[in-house]
Design a protein that fits this description.
The structure is a single chain. By secondary structure, the chain is of the alpha+beta class. It is about 20% helix and about 45% strand. A 4-stranded mixed β-sheet has the order 4-1-7-8, with no helix packed on it. Strands 3-2-5-6 form a 4-stranded antiparallel β-sheet, with no helix packed on it. Strand 5 and strand 6 form a beta hairpin. It is elongated, with a radius of gyration of 22 Å.
Length: about 130
């Protein structure tokens, strides 16, 4: 097998190092991403749903009964989630739940909409 010229070897080593650094960066970003997952266990379609923080509103398309949908969100300062929406039968969804603190990352928030529009929110770090 012929030897690689020094310049080619350095180019390959640099490319391999950049690929490894990029992979580590993507893994770190995914681990530190904040995610909100809504699960519809109400038995009715969720026709509208907005989950708001003072700096950002997450809008969800209709969510069928039994379906789960996730969105990522940013944390800019301390705040709680304002939740507003409606089920297909006209039941209003409204709650002010949870709490995020500036400097947090990797938050996993799970919101379950149950029968009668009952909302349960759980938070944990990834």
């Amino acid at each position: 097998m012929p030897r690689l010229p020094r310049r080619s070897f350095l180019a390959l080593a640099t490319a391999a190092g950049l690929a490894a650094a990029t992979g580590a960066g993507v893994a770190f970003r995914e681990h530190t991403r904040n995610a909100l997952t809504v699960t519809n266990r109400s038995g009715r379609m969720i026709t509208s749903l907005e989950v708001s923080l003072p700096w950002e509103t997450l809008r969800f398309e209709p969510i069928a009964a039994g379906e789960s949908v996730s969105r990522s969100f940013r944390i800019v300062s301390d705040a709680s989630f304002l939740i507003e929406g409606e089920l297909a039968d006209g039941t209003r969804l409204r709650a002010n739940e949870g709490y995020v603190t500036n400097g947090q990352y990797g938050e996993e928030v799970r919101m379950e909409v149950g029968p009668g529009g009952a909302i349960q929110l759980r938070q944990q770090r990834r």
